[in-house]
Automatic annotation (TrEMBL):
Species annotation: Synergistes jonesii
Pfam families xrefs: Radical_SAM
CC cofactor: [4Fe-4S] cluster
Domain Radical SAM core: 25-264
SUPFAM superfamilies assigned to the protein according to its UniProt record, in alphabetical order: Radical SAM enzymes
InterPro entries: Aldolase_TIM (IPR013785), Organic_radical-activating (IPR034457), Organic_radical_activase (IPR012839), rSAM (IPR007197), rSAM_sf (IPR058240)
Protein name as annotated: Pyruvate formate lyase-activating protein
Amino acid sequence: MTTMNETNEKELLGMVLRIERSSIYDGEGFRTVVFLKGCPLRCQWCSTPESQSFQIETTAESVYGKQMTVEQVMIEVRKDSAFFFHSGGGMTISGGELLAQPDFSRALLRMSWNECIDTAIETSFFSTWEIVSSILPYVNTAFVDLKIFDDEMHRKYCGGGNKQILENLLRTNEIKKSDSEPPFRLVVRTPIIPGINDRAEELEQIGRFCSELRYLDHVQLLPYHRLGTDTYRKLGRRYAFPDLESPSAERMAECRAYVQKYIPQVT
Ligand code: SF4
């Protein structure tokens, strides 16, 4: 039986950037990825600048963003149910920042969870624990960015400090899971930005911190890339690092070794 609350939840409106079907990069198996629009941070290397503003943006070539109800998104997600079943996939909510639209995100995750669709989130954790802890009960895998360990540097390069992010990551240790529930996994992601966060000291701090996380599955180091620079141009915005090169495979291996001093599971 559908309750009144569930009926109301289906009609909740959210600001959606786009929905991508059959992604293999954002969780287990085939994923339908729901990109939300709007983010409180401003990482200078952000590869999806069109996801930052909470408003619909129009350029000569594209319109970025549209309002959708929870049910309209779920209709899209359910189209891939057969793929989810056979590949172990499901729905991933990405951003922008889903925690900035908590009611909409929670409703989507809860509905997927109730329909036995695997759920993953890609988030900065830049929010209150009250919001984070209201969302996590409906999440199988949380990919959480920890871009820079030093608070001042995080503020300078990402547009906000990281104290809340670190606190929220640590507080995931408080989550209680019974044996009958699906497991919860945490994946910490760090983009390697040459000259900014690739010093040994910085990465060792990240490794040491992650070794305290009870639900950590692994740490993922992602090489910086310049994807998205064309979108800055379309939006009439300046890109901060037009000449920065991606780190080499050798440099990535060195960075992994810094983190692995404290935690073996680093990819
Ligand atoms: S948190 Fe993600 S979406 Fe937000 S500005 Fe940073 S990279 Fe872009």
